[in-house]
Amino acid sequence: MSCSIIEPNEPVDIGPSVPSTRRTGESSFAELTTIGTGGPVGELVKATTEEEIVDAVRDADENGIDVLVLGGGSNLLVGDSGFAGRTVIDMRNEIEQVQVSGCGGAILKGTAGTPWDEFVKVAISQGWNGIEALSGIPGSLGATPVQNVGAYGQEVSETLYSVRVYDREKKKRTDLAPIELGLSYRNSYLKKSTAEWGATGRWVVLSVTYQLGLATRSTPIAYQQLANALGVEVGERVPTIDLREAVLDLRRSKGMVLDDADRDTYSLGSFFTNPIIDEALIPVNAPKYPYGSQFKTSAAWLIDNAGCKKGFGADLTEGRASLSTKHTLALTNRGGATTDDILTVAREVRSRVEDAYGITLVNEPFILGQTL
C-alpha cells in the first residue's frame, strides 16, 4: 500500500454485527455448526488463551489423539457418528488496532475465534475499507485465510497482512506472510494440509492481521449484482456503510445471513465451489469469467440448469433436507436432518450436473467422518 492523500475516514455508527455462529450446546456437532447436523463431540476443550490452544493441540499430537480446531462451524459438515477425538474451540474475541498511518493504512489484528462480521464491523465503523463486501459471512476470523474467503468481488487475499499460526510439524509458533499461504480460489496451503494432517491441518491459525485502506468509501465495486443493487456502475465507489447494507440485503435474500427463524439459513453457505475449467468445457449460455489461463463458471447456474431447482431434494429425504428455497447453491437442514440426508441431496445434485455437463462439482465445506 503506497502513501496517498488520506480520504475522509471518520468513525461511523453502523449498528450491531450479524450472527456468525449457531451454538446451541456442546454435546454434538448439530449444536456447534450452522447447518445443525453431526454426531457426538468426543473430548471438548474451550480455550481462552493462545497458550491453551497450542497446549491442547501439541498434547493431542504427542499422544496420538485426533484433533479438530473449531471456529464458527459454518464450513464444517461432521458425520452422524461424530468425532471421537479432541475438539478445541477458540473462545477468544479480541480485536487490536496495531497501527494507522497515511502510508501503511490501518493494520487490524484479531484472534482466530473472533466472529468475522464483528471484525468487519469494527473496520467499517473506524472508517477503513477493503473488506466491506465480505459483510455478513458467518464463521470466525481464523477461517478466512484458510478458505481465502471471498464474496461480491472481494477476497481476503487482497487485504491480508499476516497470519500467526502454530506449526504442528515444527512444533512452534510463527507468522506467515500472504505469499507463504498459497492463496487461490477458496483454497490455501492451510486448507490443503488437511489431506495429510486430518480434520485440522498442519498450521493452526491463532490470529489474523489485515491491512486496510483509510476511507469511508468502498474499494471499487467489482460485482455486477452488487452494483445493480446500489444503482451504480461496476468500478464506482460508494460509502462503505451503504455497501455493507446492500451486501447484507443481498445475503438475506439468499438465506445467507443466519436467522434462527429461517430454515434456509441452516446451511454451510455455498456447498459447491464455482468450477475453474477450460473455456471449451463451459456449456453454452453459462456465465464465464477469465481466471488465469482458464475460466470460472457458475455452480449455481449448472445446478439450476441440470434440473435441480430451489427446494430440490426434499423428496429424497422425506422433507428433512433440500436445496435452499432461495438459492440453489446452499444445501439446507429443513428440520431434523442428518448429515447423511444432506449428503444424499448433495450427491444427487453433483450426479445430475455431471450427467448434464460432464463437470464434477467440488464441495466447499470440509466434510469430516463421511464422504461425498
Q: How would you sum up this structure, described in words?
A:
- Belongs to the MurB family.
- The active site is at residues 186, 270, 364.
- Residues 1-24 are annotated as: Disordered.
- This protein is α+β, with helices and mostly antiparallel strands and 372 residues long.
- It has three domains: 29-90, Uridine Diphospho-n-acetylenolpyruvylglucosamine Reductase, domain 2 (2-Layer Sandwich), CATH 3.30.43; 95-250, Uridine Diphospho-n-acetylenolpyruvylglucosamine Reductase, domain 3 (2-Layer Sandwich), CATH 3.30.465.10; 263-368, Uridine Diphospho-n-acetylenolpyruvylglucosamine Reductase, domain 1, CATH 3.90.78.
- The protein has helices spanning 50-62, 116-125, 144-147, 189-192, 194-197, 224-230, 240-253, 299-305, 339-357; strands at 41-47, 67-70, 76-78, 83-90, 95-101, 105-111, 128-129, 150-151, 154-155, 160-167, 172-176, 203-214, 276-277, 288-291, 294-297, 321-323, 331-333, 366-368.
- Strands 5, 6, 7, 10, 11 and 12 form a six-stranded antiparallel beta sheet that branches. The chain has a three-stranded parallel beta sheet with strand order 1-4-2, covered by helices on one side.
- Strand 5 and strand 6 (105-111) form a beta hairpin.
The CATH architecture of the largest domain can be given as 2-Layer Sandwich
Q: State the major sheet.
A: 6 strands, antiparallel
* Structural class by helix and strand composition: alpha+beta
- How would you state the average pLDDT, rounded? 96
User: What portion of residues belong to β-strands?
Assistant: 15-25%
- Radius of gyration, Cα only, in angstroms? 20 Å
CATH topology descriptor of the largest domain: Uridine Diphospho-n-acetylenolpyruvylglucosamine Reductase, domain 3
